[in-house]
Amino acid sequence: MTTAAAYREFAIRETRGLSPAYERLSLAVSHDRDLLDLIDTLPPTKRQPNLLFGVVRLLGGPVDDPAEFHDFTLAHWPTVAAEMRVRATQTNEAGRCAVLLPALAALPQPLALLEVGASAGLCLYPDRYAYRYGDRRIGTGAPVLDCAATGAPLPTSLPRVVWRAGLDLNPLDVTEPADVAWLDALIWPEHTHRRARLRAAAAVAAADPPLLLRGDLVNDLPALAAQAPADATLVVFHTSVLYQVPAPRRAAFVDLVRDLPGHWLANEDPDVLPHPDLPEPPGDASYNVLALDGRPLAWTRGHGQAVTWFG
After folding, report:
1. Sheet bearing 288-292, strands edge to edge
2. What are the start and end residues of each CATH 3.40.50 domain in the chain?
């Protein structure tokens, strides 16, 4: 897929109806030859719209007006490009716990959670947040995560987590203002509710920090998994991570995680982690597939705002 096509698809399938500013900006970039030529000088894994827009926001640039964005990005391209080369789209959206919860709560308790691509580890606390599925509320914590659930087997109680750890090439620290600023920059402009959620989830993590290790998802996963308590159900999970991993490395990870003890919970784009014979998705937007031990269970939206169960 060309860079222009990727930005156009991001506008239509991911931001439409959710972020007018990013839809407008993505479509503008998809026709902006000056910007496209610059973006194409970056490695393929560093050309994503979320990464570019997040870096420009972090640097104080405008994202509401495409013409101003164009001028700022061209004028500051060496700085923008340098940041894009060393950063990744580490969107640490606690709301994704809402689509993981039905699967986690159904496993034998207690749980030992190990997140691959953990960023700052905010998705390692599904037992500390509260959830609202329509008029059904589960838990009493904060933040409260809203999710439109269709057909999902909603639990009656929260899972019990006795160990939590994360693995990331560049783990972030919620007690570091610079790391939180990057997480904030990755949130779409209009999503003030997600900014409030980020701060509430960061407070939960800062009060009881998880074990976060810098490492590779293949080389370093077995040793970290071996640290999980033997009397807990190990769950290795990841969400919207594998698209950043080259295909051969992705295949090696899948082979490895299938052979680990416990369970493997994946929430990924089906183009990145394919499953045979999937039902039609609920709409034309971009959806992930929630899968347990390789068995697909549900369609999910990227920020955890909806889950449609079919498994």
Report:
1. 148-150, 306-309, 295-300, 288-292, 263-268, 233-239, 111-116, 161-168, 211-214
2. 94-176+185-309
Class of domain 94-176+185-309 (CATH, top level) = alpha beta
* Residue 197 identity: R
Show pLDDT as tens, one digit a residue, over the chain (311 residues).
899 999 999 999 889 988 999 999 999 999 999 999 999 999 999 999 999 999 999 999 999 999 999 999 999 999 999 999 999 998 899 999 999 999 999 999 999 999 999 999 999 999 999 999 999 999 999 999 999 999 999 999 999 999 999 999 999 999 999 999 999 999 999 999 999 999 999 999 999 999 999 999 999 999 999 999 999 999 999 999 999 999 999 999 999 999 999 999 999 999 999 999 999 999 988 999 999 999 999 999 999 999 999 98
- Tokens 């594998």 belong to residue: 242
Q: What is this structure's pTM?
A: 0.90
